[in-house]
Design goal:
Blueprint (H helix, E strand, L loop, with lengths): L2 E6 L6 H12 L3 E3 H11 L2 H10 L7 H12 L7 E5 L5 H14 L8 E6 L2 H9 L1 E3 L6 E3 L26 H15 L1 H8 L3 E5 L4 H10 L3
Helix pairs in contact: 1-9, 2-3, 4-5
This protein binds adenosine monophosphate (AMP).
């Protein structure tokens, strides 16, 4: 059976870390709209410039841009056995767009992805964001405050110099939370009503969260 997973949670809830671990273990593609958009921005394309004008304000990129990216990605053959969606959908409108995309891809069969909701006390979130660093080469994510690292400026896995995301400042983070609470949180009720939602306590330690997550897979 196709394994389809969706991850919803506020910025800094640790979705990226957990979905990467799950992707490695389950050999499923990890599809993260934030990273796909950052790649588009880096190409300097018109679409990338448009996306960036929303990203730097902590707002959602227009649905037509994001849905096109997702549709193209989900049609690739490595998604034949399933996928992990990290950061999409982020609004009720996007959830409806995803229903249509999945119906098209699964040829009329309505699938019901399992949706994991990462619940974290709000006070932990900003701290996690401002201490987050990532490796531009291998994609590893670090928290320079809570993780034991050989050098807080270098990736433990491949040695590259770590970078900080431009939108991980406190100022933009506050705007990203506002966007999350206004537009993304309503999805929790939608998927709960549809019987697709699994809540995860994402305030715990990384390996404990992962154990609970894999234990809850249906
Ligand atoms: P993230 O890496 O998931 O924190 O996303 C970074 C930024 O990319 C967000 O603040 C949005 O501006 C944009 N973004 C990511 N995913 C989406 C999405 N599904 N819809 C619209 N914008 C998105």
């Amino acid at each position: 059976m196709k394994k389809e997973f969706i991850f919803i949670g506020p910025p800094g809830s640790g979705k990226g870390t957990q979905t990467k671990m799950l992707s490695e273990e389950y050999k499923l593609p990890h599809i993260d709209t934030g990273s796909l958009l950052r790649e588009e921005v880096a190409t300097g394309s018109e679409e990338g410039k448009l996306a960036n004008s929303f990203m730097e304000k902590g707002q959602l990129v227009p649905i037509n841009v994001v849905s096109e990216i997702i549709k193209k990605r989900l049609k690739q053959s490595d998604c034949n056995n399933g996928f992990i969606l990290d950061g999409y959908p982020r609004s009720l409108e996007q959830a409806r767009a995803l229903d249509t995309i999945l119906e098209e891809i699964n040829k009329g069969t309505q699938t019901k992805p399992q949706v994991f909701y990462f619940d974290v006390p709000q006070e932990k979130l900003i701290e996690r964001l401002v201490n987050r660093r990532s490796c531009p080469k291998c994609g590893a994510i670090y928290n320079i405050k809570t993780m034991k690292m050989k050098d807080i400026n270098k990736c433990d896995k491949c040695g590259s110099t770590l970078t900080r995301r431009e939108d991980d400042t406190e100022e933009v983070a506050v705007k990203r939370f506002k966007t999350y609470f206004e537009q993304t949180e309503p999805l929790i009720n939608l998927y709960k009503q549809r019987g697709q939602l699994t809540k995860i306590d994402a305030g715990l330690e990384i390996n404990e969260i992962y154990k609970n997550l894999t234990g809850a897979i249906k």
